[in-house]
Amino acid sequence: MLAHLPILQVIVPLLAAPFCLILRRALLVWLFALIVSGSAFLISITLLQQVLASGTISYDLGGWSPPWGIEYRIDKLSAYLLLIISAISTVVLLAARISIQKEIPADRHTLFYILYLLSLAGMLGIIATGDIFNVFVFLEISSLSAYSLIALGKDRRALWASYQYLIMGTIGATFILISIGLMYQMTGTLNMEDLSRRLPEVAQTRTLFAAFAFFIVGVCLKLAMFPLHLWLPNAYSYAPSIVTAFLAATATKVAIYLLIRFTFSVFGISFSFTALPLQTIFLLLGLLGIFVASTAAIYQENVKHLFAYSSIAQIGYMIVGYSIGTTTGLMATLLHLFNHALMKSALFLALGAVIYRIGSAQLSAFQGLGRQMPFTMAAIVVGGLSLIGVPLTVGFVSKWYLILATIENGWWPVAVLILLGSLLAIVYVWRIVETAYFKEPAASIGQVKEAPLAFLVPVWVLVAANIYFGIDTRLSIQVAQAASQSLFGVAP
Amino acid sequence: MWILELPPFVPFFIGALFAAVTRGTLRGAIMLAIPIVSAIHLWMVPEGVYLQFAFLDYQLIPYRVDKLSLMFAYVFHIAAFIAILYSLHVRDTVQQVAAMLYAGSALGAVFAGDFLTLFVFWELLALTSVFLIWARKTRRSYIAGMRYLIVQVLSGVILLAGLLFYAAATGTLEFGHIGLEGISGWLIFIAFGIKCAFPMAHNWLTDAYPEATPTGAVFLSAFTTKVAVYSLARGYAGEELLVYIGAVMTCFPIFFAVIENDLRRVLAYSLINQVGFMVCGIGIGTALAINGAISHAFNDVIFKGLLFMSMGAVLHMTGRINGSELGGLYKTMPKTTVLCIVGAASISAFPLFSGFVSKSMVMTAALENDFNWVWLMLLFASAGVFHHAGIKIPYFAFFAHDSGIRASDPPKNMLLAMLIAALLCIGIGVYPAALYALLPYDTGYNPYDATHVLAQTQLLFFSALAFVWLNLRGMYPPELRSTVLDVDWFYRRLFPTAIRNLVATISKTDGALRQAFLARLNVCLAYLSRRHSGPSGLLSRSYPAGSMVMWVAVLLAAYLFLGFIRSV
């Protein structure tokens, strides 16, 4: 049983999705999905323990040994990502039942859970597999279900946003597929381990450069890196709240995982960082992304839009950490993956609670909410502080390492820019705080009650995690450090 | 004894919580009890490092007790008690809670054993104190508070940047001596300097303090700058640069203070002047000088608090604070007058008042270490203090021409608070040994020898003579309704105007260019619409997705191009 965990991690949610159709009753399906996601979470914990204790796990699918068969390969990086994704998915699902009652028509509830589980299975599959074509398959599974999830939104613009995401996501996936095809053509193998050995032989061919360029553009589209981020704000804003909370915390993280996995483990560090002036380009685009998106966030009138833009800015921080190209820099990126997943899931879930009560995410509707929904608003404030990077929250930890990494490298102007970027975050978070706490409630909105416990519990679990991992950083730092060192091939 | 390890900011923060939920007499009782209980607790705490825990790769020490921190903690407790007593009649919950949090943050900062904890309390000081300014609820105070907040947060961000560099360079965050070496030393120095109101960075103080509420100003005068003085004393003792900065700080505010009309702004200037003496003492860095700086900080909190309280009482009772509108109040406010004069005598360093026993230490240290010019500047500054704070404040408020205002003495709690402060001023002045026993170094200094007493008395005498003579001849700058231009004119008037003009020019050019461009675009669109029959589809629907794909194409082309260049 324990030996089969790598495949169980993926196959359990994948098979559970069609099984939901048999259950039909929404409540049962919810409980079932929760159990499935929870067991995926438990599996990921066990996997992480195994990897930390005894090193990388390789699992041959169907008993075919690689490179002929498909290999599932769990190293520290993938175990870390599996943990983040399955944990966030489980906590978010806790609030799903109550949230979709008001946002999705009753006859589509079962459909929602099926898509949710498929999307989860797709993301877990991308991370677990060691085969690049398998990556593409799971990428399509997770993306197609994500498009449909977004299209479930109550707002009619959801359909349009989903369509745009579909177009862009498909272009991205196609580019990745082209890249995979080119690599296959040059080496005749699809296994990552095998590729990493064979690619250096053909490193100087134009085909490989083309494959690399297609991959980078495709994956940057998926992770919404500036300036390929245009699909993200609408997709996040018009999707149902639960979907936003889930996707914002996981989807872009998986894309960043792909970027790291391909550049470090498939193309190899020496090729990836010399084929293109990747460091310079990513540093510039990352910084631009931080400033453009943070500034855009300041001017948003819809809080969902605001946090969506802030997500793009946070991706900018991760890209900057990646572009530094040192173990500390990559560690900062990995830490921020973890931390940003915690912040954004807490924030979007709390927003879901607000939407549940007042039916709108417009900033003007937040007037006076500080008094009417004290626990929900307090959660948004803590999440916002974490976003800014205030000490004692997780946001501080990752910014700290990011800045340390830039200083270590002697890039202190970048350190200053990162700090300035945080000041922009203060502004957009302050706008929410000011509206909620210092303005009288609008007369048109009557008495608003605090969100139900079904919302408050998961929201505060995530908020508590935001604070807990901001103080006790052993887990996140230990794993991120070990993963980053092993990617760079440094003995821990 | 876990209770010994309880940092003193905790009771204050708990007190703030109680102050938020209780009202009336109960709240007053709780708020008064907290500094007393906390002070008794603090009295039992011996020196030594207490709390510490690991965070990231660093050792954090949120609570570290040594003589330097204890000294500041004692006076902060005294100041908090007096100020709370003084503001007991205030019903505004926001103000009371903010005041408790503010005092707690100051205590947290002086016991911080590492930079990160210091940074947290540094920002908390800014965030909590600004509510004491906003609580006046005027448009002016809101804007002044905003400016204050921006400067204070900026100082915090610079501190954060500095400590990041410090951690990267040394691998530790422990807050000890820093010195002006490397970028981290300078950044932290600038951060401390802003909060300490160094020349050119002092405007936040004179701008915001006079806009605070009568009670809020008393709190403000006690904590923020003293925390900065403490930090300088710990991090930069003996840096010669500080001697000169301090000397400038003692002198330049005098000119502004003499011509300023708002009496609380006069006090704000004299606050900078007094902080200058402390900065100077820290810069000299000998045991005597450091002792002088710290004890002067101790005394300054009390006598400056007393002066702010007496002016607050005037403002509270009359609603006015400009020297030109006041005068003759001694007839109806005799008690306030007497108490104000005690404060004025202390700040002017009259023998037998508290200012004398500490200020003379700094001046003696300056002489002993051959800073003769600095000594002269300090001497000039002492005379100047007597002018603007010692004579001007009581004279224009309570004597001078009779303004016809007949306000009575303020409520009992205000009087009592002022009385306690006044008694402390006199007590320390008469029996300085009690104060000296608390100081970090034992120097055996005695202020009451013939030289000190004679020199100071002469100085005061001639200074008073100058004031009388100038006033009789009508040459003393009269109290006029006026606005004094300070350095802040640059960022409040010059820069905004310049930027506005620049923006106007740019937007004009930009507008013209846009017009031209739009005209071209319209021609193109007209052409396209002829070709495609209906531009609406082109602009409204397909444009966004198209622009995204365009970016994809641009990036792909760029990457391919760069890749091919490399591969050749």
Protein architecture, described:
The complex is a heterodimer of chains A (492) and B (568). Chain A has a domain at 277-492. Helix content of chain A is 77%, strand content 2%. Chain A has helices at 5-23, 26-54, 76-103, 109-128, 132-151, 157-187, 192-198, 206-222, 231-238, 241-266, 269-275, 278-298, 303-324, 327-358, 369-372, 374-388, 394-408, 412-438, 453-471, 474-487, and strands at 57-60, 71-74. A two-stranded antiparallel sheet of chain A has the order 1-2. In chain A, helix 3 packs parallel to helix 14. Chain B is mostly helical. In chain B, the strands form 2 sheets. A two-stranded antiparallel sheet of chain B has the order 1-4. In chain B, strands 2-3 form a two-stranded antiparallel ribbon. Chain B is globular, with a radius of gyration of 28 Å. The relative contact order of chain B is 0.08. The chains are: A mainly alpha (492), B mainly alpha (568). Chains A and B meet through helix 6, helix 8, helix 17 and helix 18 of A and helix 5, helix 6 and helix 20 of B.
Features:
heterodimer, A: 492 residues, mainly alpha, two-stranded antiparallel ribbon, 2 strands, globular, B: 568 residues, 20 helices, 74% helix, 2% strand
